[in-house]
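Notes from the 1:1 (GR / supervisor)

We went over the backlog. Supervisor wanted to see one worked example end to end before approving the batch request, so GR pasted a single chain during the call. The sequence is below; no edits were made to it. Supervisor asked that the structure be written out right there so they could see what the output format looks like.
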Amino acid sequence: MPSQILARMPSVVIFKLLAIFAIVVVGWIVGKLKWLGPGGSAADPARTLANAAYFIFVPALLFRTTARIEFKTMPWGTLVAIFVPMVAMLLVVYAWQRRGVTRGALPPAGPSVRAITAVFGNSVQVGIPMAAALFGETGLAIHLAIVSLHALVLLSLATTLVELDIARHDHADTHLVSTLLRTARNTVIHPVVLPVLAGMAWNALGLPLPAVTDEILQTLGQAVVPLCLVLIGMSLAYYGVRGAVKTALGLSVLKLLVLPTLVLTIAHWGFHLNGVALAVVVMMAAMPIGSNALIFAQRYRALEAETTAATVFSTLAFAVTAPLWLMALHALA
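Structure output shown during the call:
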């Protein structure tokens, strides 16, 4: 990896992060001045925006992405090398946090919220321009392949886990088979999983998306990024970070340091990945926490304050940790 990428790194990161924080500040102002209504009310504006994202814009984005994936040309070896450690870490964090539910310290959805927060990265707003600037067309193609399956794999798994926990909590006396059937139904008929399954079915039929349909889905999907960033700012204004700083910092460390270390170790020494492919997967793992984690928390009304704080903290810290990971990759090369 050429050393000059380290010189190009600050401008790529700083300009993108400045834009992100500017939009978050807009959301904070909106929330602080209560332009959309007071937080914590029955019609909490932050929850309303989160529901709009979860039920309208995210499904459109997921369906369009899945329906357009060219599975035959996907770099499957590279994808396995990154998703194996990501899924492993999600499951480990989830299992670790399950103890909190047992002790009554966490709501049923808490373990899944913390698990998705620890692994779901900002692969679009920050990841795409960084991959393009640092690794060129080859690296960007690999990054986009990962992005196309990012939400599909991680959000679908987290959704399954959280629906199972909620079913067990709400129907503790129900037979195991009934609980599993209820979980399966709620997981499939879900604003994240259902559009993914529908998109995969459309893809399998080999049918192109009609031009008008594609334009509608693309327009709806483009609203996800600004809406989520505004939602982060509003959540900061409504919920604050009091009592959530310690856990948020811990989640940021897991995302920015532990996950990329795990991906580097498994991808390089386990799957023998090298060069641009290795650099792309490590930097993908090193992305700050993505805003979909907050939408997930809002959807299940669990740990919104700490998820918001973790997203902000990790995005701030990324300006420091990203060059460190690039230097580590340069030294390894």
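Supervisor's comment: The chain has a mean pLDDT of 86.
Batch request approved.
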